[in-house]
Amino acid sequence: MRIHFKALPGKGCSRERPVTVDRLRRTGLYLPAMLGEIERKTAEVRGEWEKGRAGVESLQDLEELRVRFLGKRGYIAQLFALLRTLPPEKRAAAGKLINTLREQIEGELESLKGQLAAKAEAERLKREAHDFSLPGVWRGIGNLHPLTQVRLEIERIFMEMGFDVASGPEVETDYYNFEALNIPADHPARDEWDSFYIDEGLLLRTHTSPVQIRVMKSKKPPVRIICPGRCYRRDNPDATHFPVFHQVELLWVEKGLTMAHLKWIIEVFVREFFGPGYEMRFSADFFPFTEPSAQVHIRRAGGPWLEIMGAGMVDPAVFEEVGYDPEEVTGFAFGLGIERMAMLKYGVDDIRLFFQNHLRFLEQF
User: Fold this and answer.
1) pLDDT interval class at 200 (50, 70, 90)
2) 157 burial class (0-12, 13-18, 19+ CB within 10 angstroms)?
3) How far is the C-alpha of 228 from the C-alpha of 138, rounded, in Å?
4) What distance in Å separates the CA atoms of residue 301 and residue 277, rounded to the nearest whole number?
5) In this predicted model, what pLDDT tens digit does every residue of 101-133 receive, in sequence order?
6) Which among 338, 312, 145 has a CA at the least distance from the CA of 229?
7) Going from the N-terminus, what domains does the chain have, and what CATH number goes with each?
8) Whole-angstrom distance, CA of residue 182 vs CA of residue 111
């Protein structure tokens, strides 16, 4: 916007000087003004202000706009300089008009300043919303159940020795759970597995041995597998029994295997799982599906003997049931309880703690 009554600085002087009538006369820009002309130019300045304020986006823009309109050489100063060109009786009305415009601009400047300051503060707070110099806040996260941790550790140990992990259904047939394992219907060993029957011939498996039968029926030797899984027996809950428990069974079938191989495998497992410094012994036992059979005990030097698993060479009757020739191949198997391993490893004296889901207990693992 160019206003023809704009004053200029003095010749040879860069310093801004106030606008006066004498300076207007000397620069040739002086024109006698009437009140109507003041009103017109005031409206022009108002229009220019509206355009200027619409483009303000920062406090710096606002300051430049303030100088442009309210500075010593600004539009308002130029309007005030014209008052002396009016007849005395017109100056009051014209001055009131210009003062009203100046007050409006000053008020709107303050309003815009407050809005821009608030906007700048909000942007600053947004940038500084995360103070990375502050200490972190701990947030609890979940963890694997101790039984899962133990199972995974057992699987890792045997997988590093070359065994595969096999699984099978938890709802089993009587054939796979008992008969194929040399436990016929009238066998007294069935009394040791008080089972949950679903209907005639179907039950919740009492051990993971049925997985061994399924694998041997599906492939020829050699077989090197472990069978982890959940099992069920009708036990009354106490410190060492629970109707739901977890087992890991191992089966190795190949030519030339003996009890010496079985002992070596178990020794490696004990050393890896419990650490060095344990003694191990075998004691004779009976299982329908292994012959000979044994119980395996371990202890620290001078400590009590602790039973950890049952083991033995696979009974020839089992090999015949799955179609293997017991004259060609031999094998051994053992089974251990995951809860039993966890209780021995961590010093837990009650199996029920693993199933009660108390955080004070679970957070220790």
Assistant:
1) confident
2) middle
3) 35
4) 7
5) 888 888 888 888 888 888 888 888 888 777 778
6) 338
7) 21-127 (no CATH), 146-362 (3.30.930.10)
8) 94
- How do residues 276-332 score in pLDDT, each as one tens digit? 889 999 999 999 999 999 999 999 888 899 999 999 999 999 999 999 999 999 999
**Single-letter amino acid code for the residue at 68:** R
CA-to-CA dists, residue 171 to 146, 166, 205, 233, angstroms? 25, 16, 6, 13
Furthest CA-CA distance within the chain: 136
Residue from 207, 152, 157 nearest 177 by CA: 207
The pTM score is 0.63
Three-state DSSP state, 129: coil
Contact 339, 351 (CB under 8 A): yes
The model's confidence at residue 11, banded by pLDDT at 50, 70 and 90, is: very low
What is the CA angle 10-12-17, rounded to 5? 30
Q: ω before 9 within 30° of 0 (cis)? A: no
Q: What is the rounded distance in angstroms from the CA atom of residue 282 to the CA atom of residue 230?
A: 26
Calculate helix-pair angle for 35-54, 88-127, nearest 10 degrees: 0
The size of the chain, in residues, is 365
Helix (H) or strand (E) holding 73: none
